[in-house]
Design a protein that fits this description.
- 72% of the residues lie in helices and 3% in strands.
- The chain has 145 residues and is mainly alpha-helical.
- The protein folds into 2 domains: 92 residues; 52 residues, no CATH class.
- Strands 1-2 form a two-stranded antiparallel ribbon.
- A hairpin with a 6-residue loop joins strand 1 and strand 2.
- The protein is elongated, with a radius of gyration of 22 Å.
- The protein binds zinc ion.
- The site of zinc ion (ZN) has 8 residues, from loops.
């Protein structure tokens, strides 16, 4: 192989490595944006719900249908937010406690809050690979930073 080919090859793998890294950063920040959006939408729905409750007691009208609708929507948004938060935790290498939902550092064996045993890295990795297409290398890199 000529020196030129060798340099070209190295440059290519450097670009690939940067691309993978950038891809991960974008994905996590996208998830964080989605979480922020959901949070503000939930807050907004709570405000409307508060207003409906106020109107109901001020006017003596029945708004139970509106309330049920809003509560259903809020529950939907909250479970959506839960799954986004879960993806963020997985992408940033945190382990979620199956018992209390606390996010723990990757190396933890037990939950810092309730003491529950946490799933092993291998189990976690299988779950992560299903949902987000990050390579193992990227995860290891983060540990060093
Ligand atoms: Zn726990």
């Amino acid at each position: 192989m000529s020196i030129f080919e060798d340099v070209l090859l190295n440059a290519r793998s450097a670009v690939d490595a940067v691309g993978k890294k950038a891809g991960k950063v974008i994905d996590v920040s996208k998830l964080k944006l989605a979480a922020a959006d959901l949070k503000s939408e939930i807050t907004h729905k709570y405000q409307i719900l508060g207003r409906v409750v106020f109107e109901e007691s001020a006017t003596n009208k029945d708004y139970s249908k509106n309330k049920a609708e809003l509560i259903g929507k809020i529950e939907e948004l909250r479970s959506e937010l839960d799954s986004v938060n879960e993806l963020i935790a997985k992408a940033s290498n945190k382990k979620k406690c199956a018992s209390c939902g606390t996010y723990n550092p990757k190396n933890s064996q037990f939950c810092s809050k309730c003491g529950e045993k946490l799933v092993s890295d291998e189990e976690e990795r299988v779950l992560t690979d299903d949902m987000i297409d990050f390579t193992e290398d990227n995860f290891e890199d983060d540990e060093l930073l």
